[in-house]
Amino acid sequence: MTDSLSAELWRGISGIYAAILAHPFVTGLADGSLPRESFEFFVVQDALYLRKYAQSLAAVGSRAPDTTQTEMFARHAAGIVAAELSLHESLLADLGIDPATADAAEEAPTNLAYTSYLLATVTGGSYGEGVGAVLPCYWIYAEVGKHLLERGSPDPRYQRWIDTYGGDEFGDEAREVIAVTDKLEVAPAERTRIARHFRTTSRYEWMFWDMGYRRESWPL
Fold first, then answer.
1. Phi, psi of 106, rounded to the nearest 5 degrees
2. Is 216 a catalytic residue?
3. First to last CA, the chain
4. Is the pTM of this model over 0.85?
5. Phi, psi of 95 (to 5 degrees)
6. Least buried of 15, 99, 200, 216, by fewest C-beta within 10 Å?
7. Is 107 among the catalytic positions?
8. Catalytic annotation, pick one of 40, 137, 143, 173
9. Alpha helices in the chain (DSSP H)
10. Which pLDDT tens digit goes with each residue over 69-99?
């Protein structure tokens, strides 16, 4: 029997996922060693990212082959706006960051590149390619959240972030999209494109952690 598409995709990024777990941003969340400045930078950039990610999910849903999948992606997009952005707002308050300042922040190079790639793929590629492009953010965050939940963090702000992404609700959403992925009926050429998008946005996930840790800025 051949592997499911999701199993094939995950196997293809095993090295990337291992690198994410080993990154000092992720290990620093668990042991509390992550510099506060890096976390502050990450929270602001992630809030900017989530707005465009919600747009990407809505765009994928608009191309779904049935209303059930359209509803799922629309619900997830609305959930990002309602729940995850409220988490960022509460963290901004705890970190002493003015929300207006965060709203006016400029996207870091990696953030802009990642969201631009997502939007280009979900609007210019097939429905399956769009699913493949948005899936890593769901899946990797759910797996990292579970990984960190087992370890906990001495910093209550980091723990609040871990509790959100390691919780059952976020994990359930990831499993919904994985199930959709395995129902895709695609020819070999499209399957290859889906795998390429999945691997590319998984790389961007590592780059996003690294961007936050380094507090990446534009060189010019």
1. -90, 140
2. no
3. 52
4. yes
5. -85, -5
6. 15
7. no
8. 137
9. 5-12, 14-22, 24-31, 36-62, 67-79, 85-94, 99-103, 109-124, 127-151, 156-166, 168-183, 188-214
10. 999 999 999 987 776 667 667 778 888 888 7
